[in-house]
Amino acid sequence: MGEPLGLLKVTVVRGKGLVIRDFKSSDPYVVVKLGNQQTARTRVINSCLNPVWNEELSFSLAEPVGMLNLEVFDRDRFKADDKMGHAHISLQPIVSAARLRQILKVSSGETTLRKVVPDGDNCLVRESSIACIDGEVMQDVWLRLSDVESGEIQLKIKFIDNSFPGTR
Q1: Backbone phi, then psi, for 76, in 5-degree steps?
Q2: β-bridge mates for residue 9, sequence order
Q3: How many CB atoms lie within 10 A of CB 157?
Q4: Which residues pair with 69 in a beta bridge?
């Protein structure tokens, strides 16, 4: 890893319309990866295609800023866990928005810093705003899962910049 930029807090909020991998349902969990070195996962939600996790996962963010990748799996007891799709989102827009926040010296209230549209650098379902809310840079996203028939995951991403006072 290069120069440390700050802390990335990713809340895996919920899934919607996940695919069936067992007889009638699935037992999903999410694995979130930042680069090749940092990985975290949610707990398993049994027998649910629309799970609610609301779990916060923390990562150290450093240069070069890359992608946040996630994979959804169905927990199986007696064989390998089944894949239920994967998605990714570029972290460059949220880091750029944090730098803009520094330049503008935004620290209170709610200010939209940037909008991100679905494209090849992300699996966004719809446009997403990056906002500074009471000094914290946040993005709420819905990601469409790839290589499966259906499924979406909602994340709340918060970037806490090391170089800006009052963000910890």
Answers
A1: -120, 145
A2: 58, 158
A3: 20
A4: 33, 88
Task: Please name the residues in contact with 81: beta carbons below 8 A apart, sequence gap of 6 or more.
Answer: 73, 74, 75
Q: How many residues does the chain have?
A: 168
8: amino acid identity, one letter: L
Q: Name the region of 147 (left: φ>0; alpha: ψ -120 to 50; beta: rest).
A: left
Give every CB contact of residue 90 below 8 A, 6+ residues apart in sequence. Answer: 66, 67, 68, 121, 122
Return per-residue pLDDT of the chain as tens, 168 residues: 578 889 999 999 999 999 998 888 999 999 999 988 899 999 999 999 999 999 999 999 988 888 999 999 999 988 899 999 999 999 999 999 988 887 777 777 788 899 999 998 899 999 999 999 888 899 999 999 999 999 999 999 999 887 655 444
Single-letter residue type at 139: Q
Number of helices and strands (H, E) in the chain? 1, 10
Under 8 Å between Cβ of 72 and 30: yes
Q: Which residues contact 160 (CB under 8 A, 6 or more apart)?
A: 6, 7, 8, 9, 136, 137, 167, 168
